[in-house]
Write a structure and sequence with these properties.
heterodimer, A: about 300 residues, mainly alpha, MetI-like fold, 14 helices, about 0% strand, globular, B: mainly alpha, two-stranded antiparallel sheet, 2 strands
């Protein structure tokens, strides 16, 4: 939101299909207000449609299964019961949470470290092979997991790392490093090398200058890239499905388990929605925080979808 | 780039000059070693393995019996290319990808234009709604949509039933006709991808100068002409990039299709390339043919990505 707000210098509403004489232009805003209201109503309707599934998830999660059994849906938030949440937070949830947390923390830590070093190399130095590396990064980040998972499965099974937190983390680091390098590179370039050089003139070594001057200025960039890497690992489904078995599931696989059961027996949608809400809420919070930095980063270097 | 990236070309040039003296230093290569090592492990080796395996007979026998895989030349590729199921799935994937990406970009563009025409409060409301949809983790979004399209008590059937003369009672969206299944998949993927397009296009639209639009208005341009000849040419690069990205992303809708199949049917009539490769390679243990198909997907992605990367490099010097 922040980025779009910054980027929006109050776009003047222009009326469609108006071919009025110049005199009309200064009063355009007021005279165009009827059309503006029409567009506004349309915009509100679109907003409601887009937000409805999110609303429906939270709303259903608080309704009792008896209410959900009814053929007339309950649209207003009449729920307020957390029984469904108590129903899904059990041993299997904490197991999956633990695995998701370990994998994500390991992956984000090493991904940030490796990507940071690489981004310093490509934005602070000019060397032979630099352009090749940047091109390789861009191409690698486009490679789909669907095109690689057979080989990754075989590789992990030969290394004895199938269903292993460490093995999954390794694959996640490799998958997320390219985008993180690309995103951090922008931040590192944004800190002028002159600042560092001035500090070196004042007697600091290059490493000291980097640690004391550049690194603190990069902190926001590191946080944003870190949150972003976190979101990608936390939400990842495909590689986790291929590598992990039923006893060692990450949260997305755990959540999928609810839908899988639906083919064999009637499922309690209230519980499924409670489980979805638990998985989604932290992601939504983090996402909204970093979104501003991301819209710019996204177009500049694509993300695995 | 219409959306200001964290870097600018001017800055890059400045850095260029100031670091010229470090040209021969070995330091950057050391800094790159960890990143290159993990990429070779996680991405490089799998790609090479896959290329080699695609020329081998590598099935359950080799996997379980420890039999060394034989090189069989192009046999896997021929088997894949002569399999009618593969072509059905491939054509279906490409059509799904084209249709969904086009619809996504058109709706995203329309919403971006809409944002420029409404009051600030309404615009922010719309942006928050889009942001929430964008932030939803794919798996959570899928469970909600499956619930919305639920045959018995889903809201979609309930609402459609309210329309007089429409009988959608118990209509089976996910487990019935494959065509309907893919319409549902397309709706869900569009819902997920429109916010990114709308935000990018809106950022592009704010770069269109008001003066230019007003000048054209003075010259008597109609609303459509202003859009066609002034606004669209300016935001064309953004549109091209988001279109390419959506094409690439919509080729890999593995999660969405897998979860819809969980709720519906597992038959290959409902497969796109990702799920088909998974069933062939990982679940069916036919690594050779699975690898050959995966190479096809990789090649398709790299061709599409190449255009994207070229436009990216044109905008932002690396």
């Amino acid at each position: 939101m922040s980025a779009s707000a910054q980027l929006a210098p109050a776009a003047a509403p222009t009326r469609p299909g108006s071919s009025h004489p110049p005199a009309a232009t200064p009063k355009r805003r007021r005279r165009g207000s009827a059309a503006t209201w029409g567009w506004s109503i349309l915009a509100i309707v679109v907003a409601l449609i887009w937000v409805f599934p999110v609303y429906w998830m939270v709303n259903s999660s608080m309704l009792s299964s008896a209410t959900l059994e009814s053929f007339t849906p309950t649209f207003l938030p009449f729920g307020g019961s957390f029984a469904n949440y108590r129903g899904v937070i059990d041993g299997s949830f904490f197991g999956a949470l633990g695995i998701s947390l370990s994998v994500t923390i390991i992956a984000v830590f090493f991904c940030l470290l490796f990507a940071f070093l690489a981004s310093v190399a490509i934005s602070r130095f000019r060397f032979r092979g630099r352009t090749t590396f940047v091109l390789a990064i861009l191409i690698i980040q486009m490679l789909p997991a669907e095109g690689l998972f057979i080989a990754q499965y075989k590789m992990m099974s030969e290394l004895g790392l199938l269903s292993n937190v460490f093995g999954l983390s390794l694959l996640y680091i490799a998958a997320v490093v390219p985008f993180t390098v690309w995103m951090l590179r922008g931040f590192v370039t944004g800190v002028p090398a002159e600042l560092e050089e001035a500090a070196m003139v004042d007697g600091l070594s290059r490493t000291q200058a980097f640690m004391r001057i550049t690194l603190p200025l990069l902190a926001p960039g590191l946080v944003a890239s870190g949150v972003f890497a976190f979101l990608q690992c936390w939400n990842e489904f495909t590689v986790a499905l291929v590598i992990m078995n039923a006893e060692n599931q990450t949260l997305p696989l755990w959540l999928r388990g609810f839908v899988q059961q639906s083919s064999s027996r009637a499922i309690d949608w209230g519980e499924v929605m409670a489980a979805s809400t638990i998985v989604a809420i932290p992601v939504i919070v983090f996402f909204v925080i970093v979104q501003g930095r991301m819209t710019s980063g996204l177009v500049a270097g694509a993300v695995k979808g | 780039m219409a959306v200001p990236a964290p870097t600018t070309i001017e800055r890059d040039h400045r850095t260029d000059e100031s670091v010229g003296s470090r040209r021969r230093s070995p330091v950057p290569l050391f800094l790159l070693i960890p990143a290159i090592a993990i990429l070779l492990f996680g991405m490089g080796y799998p790609v090479v393995w896959q290329v080699i395996t695609s020329f081998q007979k590598y099935g359950a026998l080799q996997q379980l019996g420890g039999k060394a895989p034989d090189f069989v030349g192009l046999d896997n590729y021929i088997a894949v290319a002569t399999s009618p199921t593969f072509w059905e799935v491939a054509v279906r994937s490409v059509i799904f990808c084209l249709v969904t990406a086009l619809i996504t970009v058109v709706i995203g563009m329309a919403l971006a234009l809409l944002m420029t025409r409404v009051h600030a409060g309404v615009r922010i409301t719309l942006q928050i709604a889009l942001l929430l949809a964008w932030a939803m983790p794919v798996v959570a979004a899928m469970t909600v949509w499956i619930w919305l399209f639920d045959r018995r008590r889903g809201v979609v059937n309930y609402l459609l039933d309210l329309i007089p003369g429409v009988d959608m009672n118990q209509f089976n969206w996910i487990g019935g006709e494959p065509f309907v299944f893919f319409i549902v998949a397309s709706i869900i993927v569009t819902w997920m991808s429109v916010p990114f397009v709308a935000f990018s296009a809106y950022a592009g639209l704010t770069q269109v100068s008001t003066e230019m639009v007003e000048a054209s208005q003075l010259d008597g341009a109609t609303g459509w002409q202003r859009l066609r000849f002034i606004v669209l040419p300016i935001i064309r690069p953004v549109i091209m990039i988001v279109l390419l990205l959506n094409l690439i992303w919509d080729l890999r809708v593995f999660t969405q299709i897998t979860m819809l199949q969980d709720a519906g049917s597992n038959s290959s009539d409902y497969d796109l390339l990702g799920t088909y490769i998974y069933k062939m390679g990982v679940a069916g243990l036919n690594f050779g043919q699975g690898a050959a198909m995966a190479i096809f997907v990789l090649a398709l992605t790299i061709v599409l990505s190449w255009f994207y990367i070229r436009s990216l490099l044109k905008e932002d010097q690396v």
